Automatic annotation (TrEMBL):
<dbReference type="InterPro" id="IPR005123">
    <property type="entry name" value="Oxoglu/Fe-dep_dioxygenase_dom"/>
</dbReference>
<keyword id="KW-0479">Metal-binding</keyword>
<keyword id="KW-0560">Oxidoreductase</keyword>
<dbReference type="InterPro" id="IPR027443">
    <property type="entry name" value="IPNS-like_sf"/>
</dbReference>
<dbReference type="Pfam" id="PF14226">
    <property type="entry name" value="DIOX_N"/>
</dbReference>
<keyword id="KW-0223">Dioxygenase</keyword>
<dbReference type="InterPro" id="IPR050231">
    <property type="entry name" value="Iron_ascorbate_oxido_reductase"/>
</dbReference>
<comment type="similarity">
    <text>Belongs to the iron/ascorbate-dependent oxidoreductase family.</text>
</comment>
<dbReference type="InterPro" id="IPR044861">
    <property type="entry name" value="IPNS-like_FE2OG_OXY"/>
</dbReference>
<protein>
    <submittedName>
        <fullName>Putative 2-oxoglutarate-dependent dioxygenase AOP1</fullName>
    </submittedName>
</protein>
<feature type="domain" description="Fe2OG dioxygenase">
    <location>
        <begin position="161"/>
        <end position="267"/>
    </location>
</feature>
<dbReference type="Pfam" id="PF03171">
    <property type="entry name" value="2OG-FeII_Oxy"/>
</dbReference>
<dbReference type="InterPro" id="IPR026992">
    <property type="entry name" value="DIOX_N"/>
</dbReference>
<dbReference type="GO" id="GO:0051213">
    <property type="term" value="F:dioxygenase activity"/>
</dbReference>
<dbReference type="GO" id="GO:0046872">
    <property type="term" value="F:metal ion binding"/>
</dbReference>
<keyword id="KW-0408">Iron</keyword>
Length: 325
């Protein structure tokens, strides 16, 4: 694959404060056009990311046989090795709402007791903060549709949302030429309502524009901003007012490991996803048949490949009324 470099300017929203009307309108524009934006002043310190990064290095450099103790063939199934999502990608899953217990279950196989405890505590704190941030984000997204709208729909529709996170390690092939890229994670949309991503300074996250071009989402160094993107569940719930964009990760020279953490926050399994009437509009068209959240998640699950999600299928393939593929 040869390198094509263009990058997108996304708004960076200060999530520590109520958003001004002009910030809400740039949020709405970004969600419609890209389905991506940045948040700053999110309350997670550089030290936390440094610690998580060093735990990640420690975990992923363990012998494969150790990692496979929590791999797809074990009952825990929190580790996904290389060659499932891509040859260059491996990941560890930590599930909420009890992030401490979930991290601890994996950590017991990976670390000595002391590190194991520290790892789980940091993930507990991180998972809780991400959950809180997701709530703030959805609140602002709903506010961008109008204050009355937020009041009416925030509590009843989003109160049972929950999240999980994935610590990702990308190992590029050493044979990469200067003008070459490898696909670290193939094109996909997220199944969440919102996803919050920390990417290290390596870069490589790309979003597909509505014209079908891949553009880079560069890490913002100075403000340590996090990337937020809209997932399929929110695209369907919003009747396509919000875009769940296709994105991927590419790896370039220098061939160094890339570290990221993605937090996925979405509806409870039994939730029926159906757009509120205000978003369909009078005489407007419903873009999706109402569906049960877990049915969509099952549709995306790939049994043959270690139950990692299928890449390349979206909520339009599942419940869309318009055939566009
Ligand atoms: O690693 C990244 O920057 C993004 C990962 C991602 O898109 C995902 O895990 O769904
Ligand atoms: Fe993603």
């Amino acid at each position: 694959m040869s390198v094509s470099k263009a990058s997108v300017e996304l708004p960076i929203l200060d999530i520590s404060q109520p958003l001004s009307p002009s910030s809400l309108s740039s949020l709405a524009d970004a969600c419609k056009k890209w389905g991506f934006f940045h948040i700053k002043n999110h309350g997670i310190s550089k030290e936390i990311y440094d610690k998580l990064h060093s735990f990640s290095n420690e975990i992923f450099s363990l012998p494969l046989e150790t990692k496979l103790k929590i791999g797809p063939l074990s009952s825990l199934n929190t580790y996904t090795p290389h060659f499932i999502a891509s040859p260059f990608f491996e990941t560890l899953r930590v599930s909420g709402p009890n992030f401490l217990a979930s991290a601890q279950n994996s950590a017991e196989f990976l670390f000595n007791q002391k590190s194991s405890h520290q790892f789980s505590e940091i993930l507990q704190e991180y998972g809780e903060k991400m959950t809180e941030l997701s709530r703030k984000i959805i609140k602002n997204v709903l506010l961008s549709f109008g204050e009355g709208f937020e009041k009416k729909y925030h509590e009843p529709h989003f109160k049972n949302c929950h999240g999980y996170l994935r610590i990702n390690n990308y190992t590029p092939p050493e044979t990469l030429e200067d003008d070459e890229e490898a696909e670290g994670l193939g094109m996909h949309t997220d199944m969440s309502c919102v996803t919050i991503v920390y990417q290290d300074q390596t870069g490589g996250l790309q979003v597909k524009s509505s014209e079908g071009k891949w553009v880079d989402i560069n890490p913002c160094e100075e403000s340590e901003a996090l990337v937020v993107n809209i997932g399929d569940l929110l695209q369907a719930w919003s009747n396509d007012r919000l875009r769940s964009s296709e994105h991927r990760v590419v790896l370039r020279r220098p061939a160094i490991n890339r570290f990221s953490i993605a937090f996925f926050w979405g509806f409870e399994d039994e939730k029926v996803v159906s757009a509120p009437k205000e978003l369909v509009g009078e005489g407007g068209k419903r873009m999706y048949k109402p569906f049960v959240c877990s049915d969509y998640l099952k549709f995306r699950e790939n049994d043959e490949r270690g139950k990692f999600e299928k890449v390349g299928f979206t909520v339009r393939d599942f419940a869309g009324k318009i055939i566009n593929k």
